[in-house]
Amino acid sequence: MKLLYWVFAAALIVVAVLFALSNRQTVEFGFWPLPYVAEVSVYAFGLGAFAIGFLCGGFFVWLRAITVRGRAKLALRRADRLQQEVNTLRERLDEAEKEAAQSTSVVALSAETPDTLPKVASAR
Which residues is 26 bridged to in the sheet? Predict the structure, then answer.
């Protein structure tokens, strides 16, 4: 992928250099309704317009990414909250299993046969 990037970048640079060498004439660039006129070479005007378009495109992509980053933050917060809930429920389950094991052992102790229990003299 990096090789493809560098091949594309090199081709773009070669095209820009050839464009600049082919268009060295100057043109008058006026700002209507202002009285100012600037003499700019054709290649500077063309490459400047390309650069401005590139920067504006990058700015609009950045603006679009703001909403994506916001959604990602919300999803991350929700995932953290759900993970905390899972951890809490696991702890509660472990406690319930321990209580169930303890109550099972108490029931097993109370289910012993009467002849294994010590004899208590009745007070009647």
Answer: 41
